[in-house]
Write a structure and sequence with these properties.
about 0% strand, mainly alpha, single chain
Length: about 190
Amino acid sequence: MSYLADLAGKGDGSAFEQLVDRFWSDIFRMAYYRTSSRADAEELTQDIFMKAYRNVSALKDPDRFKPWLYSIGLNRIRDYYRRKQVRSIVTFFSDNDHEEYFPEIADDHPSASDDMEKREFWEKVGEFAENLPRGEREVFRLRFMDQLTLKDTAQVLGRKESTVKTHLYRAVDKLRRDRKLLDLLR
C-alpha cells in the first residue's frame, strides 16, 4: 500500500486508482455510519477521494496513507455537519420556502433489500455511539465501525495510543452496560 501511495504522490494516476479501489468501501462505510444516508455518503466519499487526489503529493510518509485518508474523511464529514447546521439556522430564520433553496438530496432510508435485523443492529450501534462523549465516540467508530487498528486510530485522531485505549475502554465499558444492544448481539 505504501508503494502505491508513494507512486500516487509522484503523479501516477493508476496507482491512485488502485488506492481508491482498495479503500472506497471503507471510506463509504465511515461516511454512511455518520450520515445514515446512502446519497450523502456517496457524495462525501467522492469528495474525500477528490481531496486526497489533489493533496496526495503533499503526503510526506506513504506508510501513513490510510490514517491520512481517514483524517480527510473525518474533516469532510465534520464540514458536512457544519454546513447542515448552518443550513438549518438559515432556513429557520428565512421567510422563504426553504425547500426551494435546500432540496433534500437523498432518501435517508436504507433499501428494502437490507436485512431488517442487521439494519436494526446498526441503528442501535449508531444511537449508542451518538450518546458517547465526543472522544469516545470517534475512537469507538474508528475502531469498531471503520475497523482501524489502535495505532491507525491514534494517528487519525492525532492522539497517543494510550489515550485512544482509555477512550476505547470507557466506550466498551458503556457498551457492556447497554442491555438493549447486548440483547441484539445474542
